[in-house]
């Protein structure tokens, strides 16, 4: 048995962010909070999610369990919530119930969904990456660079030089190069450059709020870290290695 | 000959509401006002519409007549009106002219449309229904319950209990149950429960303004009553009888 | 070599207006400013564009040249600009670079596009037209008349009478007649009437700002003149001659 209560808009934000990356997820429920680590079907990207129990208004469980969710079905439901709804989640072995209610309201809207068996639900471990540059950016700067690249190409190159963060894309119809200096934090151990598939990044960039931290190396996976309300999200993307 | 004048936004609202329910309509024009009773082609829903002459700024007729309208063509035209336009309608035997003009404006926009012969334009009579519950709700409460159900199922169950109005839907991917207590009026003679096709209701719910009155019985047609500005609209929907 | 600087929103407006009329354009760059005259592939409409160097913040060229632009690719790029971005354009023989930067910003976004060879890039000359009526209208009055006609027909008739400007359209499903008297200027030498293809006009009407000047004759090409910020645009459309 799992019972939790939080602002519906927080859960809506989280589920919508996940829906752009993964289709199914098996969330682990522990006494400390909820979490999962998942990979996309092609094993090119990994997402790690954690939200501590202290960020829920109510949080109770009888034993550790996991909740298999069809992310898109959950998205349809949370998107029916009102901005100031309170969401109560109750799960047993087979089913999750999402109840929306205004704080002072008498109308109770109770959605039920079956829990699912998540295929390929192996446990993944977040790899350690010896990245050589860390850049913290306002989210709109990151999002603009991704969107600029998207109209030009299907891949994007990041390069952290000593005094400028470069984002480049090249396509049949043109090129784009953005020189970014509006960082919140910038640490470069050595010049670092890698190229990535753009479609994974556009989906993630939509969800980033406030700020995002980028960890970059040379032809290494990209690590993006950001928070959605109090949930911590880590996104790792394999580099696209150019054939010579 | 029929001549009438009213605010364009009132007629726009009415025609858009009708367009979601019926394709053609034969409006009866009498000295008391305009009205019609129509059924959808599958004879599952009935709509009755009345608007008294006192709600027009000008209203003149030489004899009782009926106006056969292609609702969608009329919708395209009224949707070209401006929020503060005055609409003048003039009809002869074959044609209706819709003239839009700002109250203080010099530009006159005059649309002409042929009147049509409405197929199957028999006269219908609104049936008397021995319903056992009457619930008056704010329109947003009704609309939310319909939209919640729509993401889950293609049918919806209403149940009026002594102290709560329940709306339920069940589908392959989940279920929804809404407990409504935010009524404006609630009279239950006996517990009343019926199930309806949802697609008819979603179309109507879009048009409901301010409040709606629901008359419900046991496995009986549903009766919805609401007004659009000063037009009175009554919508009756046959129940879906579950096969055992 | 060509270098110019102006507000990105001005160029965005111009490129979006052009994109609705033509696909490719060869812009002539002279010491006085930029300009071109182009026809659509079916030679039914002509557009003439001019923008003096005094309307640029910076404007430098080493010799007269022409810039062959894929209008749609340029549109995608300018639409990525922010409302208060400054746009710097730099062109050499093969390539144009569009650089966006906030006035006080450190982030530099540099888009590169190949210049193209414009097929059929003959030089056109704007014809002299002996029109017999000149009507200057607020753009919303013109735009409304075009949109009203569009829901009825694929052609539109303009008639300038001594004291009223009439716009008419007739289709299978109805008719529209607009009597316009809200002009800013109205000079009619003789009653003038012509009919035009509506699809060309709807595309142009979208782009018209503030006001538009219409020059009309009897079964003659239509001439529309308007400005976008400081660019002067002239649009000429061949009449549709009705078969008897």
Describe it for me?
The structure is a homotrimer of 244-residue chains. Helices cover 17% and strands 48% of the residues of chain A. The first copy, chain A, folds into two domains: 2-114, DNA Polymerase III, Chain A, domain 2, CATH 3.10.150.10; 133-237, Proliferating Cell Nuclear Antigen. The model of chain A has no long low-confidence stretch (mean pLDDT 94). Chain A has four helices and 18 strands. In chain A, helix 1 (8-19) packs antiparallel against helix 2 and helix 3 packs antiparallel against helix 4. Chain A has helices at residues 8-19, 71-78, 139-150, 198-207; strands at 2-7, 24-30, 33-39, 45-52, 58-61, 65-70, 85-91, 95-102, 108-114, 133-138, 155-160, 165-171, 174-180, 185-188, 192-197, 211-216, 222-228, 231-237. Chain A has 244 residues and is α+β, with helices and mostly antiparallel strands. In chain A, strand 12 and strand 13 (174-180) form a beta hairpin. In chain A, strands 6-2-3-4-18-17-16-10-14 form a nine-stranded antiparallel β-sheet. Chain A has a five-stranded antiparallel β-sheet with strand order 5-1-7-8-9. The B-C interface holds B 70, 73, 76-77, 80, 105-114 and C 141, 144-145, 147-148, 151-152, 173-182.
Topology at a glance:
The structure is a homotrimer of 244-residue chains.
Chain A: E1 2-7, H1 8-19, E2 24-30, E3 33-39, E4 45-52, E5 58-61, E6 65-70, H2 71-78, E7 85-91, E8 95-102, E9 108-114, E10 133-138, H3 139-150, E11 155-160, E12 165-171, E13 174-180, E14 185-188, E15 192-197, H4 198-207, E16 211-216, E17 222-228, E18 231-237
Antiparallel strand pairs in A: 1-5, 1-7, 2-3, 2-6, 3-4, 4-18, 7-8, 8-9, 10-14, 10-16, 11-12, 11-15, 12-13, 16-17, 17-18
Helix pairs in contact in A: 1-2, 3-4
């Amino acid at each position: 048995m799992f019972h939790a209560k939080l602002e519906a808009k927080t859960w809506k934000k989280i589920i919508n962010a996940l829906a752009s990356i993964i289709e199914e997820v098996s969330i682990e429920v522990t006494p400390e909070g909820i979490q999962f680590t998942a990979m996309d079907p092609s094993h090119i990207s990994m997402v790690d999610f954690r939200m501590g129990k202290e960020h829920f208004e109510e949080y109770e469980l009888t034993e550790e369990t996991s909740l298999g969710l069809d992310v898109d079905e959950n998205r349809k439901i949370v998107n029916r919530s009102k901005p100031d709804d309170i969401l109560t989640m109750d799960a047993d072995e087979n089913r999750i119930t999402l109840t929306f209610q205004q704080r002072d309201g008498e109308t109770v809207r109770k959605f039920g969904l079956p829990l699912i068996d998540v295929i390929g639900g192996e446990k993944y471990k977040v790899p350690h990456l010896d990245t050589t540059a860390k850049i913290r950016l306002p989210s709109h700067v990151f999002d603009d660079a991704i969107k600029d690249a998207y109209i030009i190409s299907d891949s994007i190159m990041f390069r952290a030089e000593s005094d400028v963060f470069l984002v480049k894309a090249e396509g049949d119809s043109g090129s784009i190069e953005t020189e970014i200096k509006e960082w919140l934090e910038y640490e470069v151990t050595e010049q670092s450059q890698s190229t990535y598939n753009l479609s994974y990044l556009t989906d993630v960039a939509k969800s980033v709020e406030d700020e995002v931290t980028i960890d970059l190396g040379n032809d290494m996976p990209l690590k993006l870290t950001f928070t959605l309300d109090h949930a911590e999200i880590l996104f790792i993307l394999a580099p696209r290695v150019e054939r010579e």
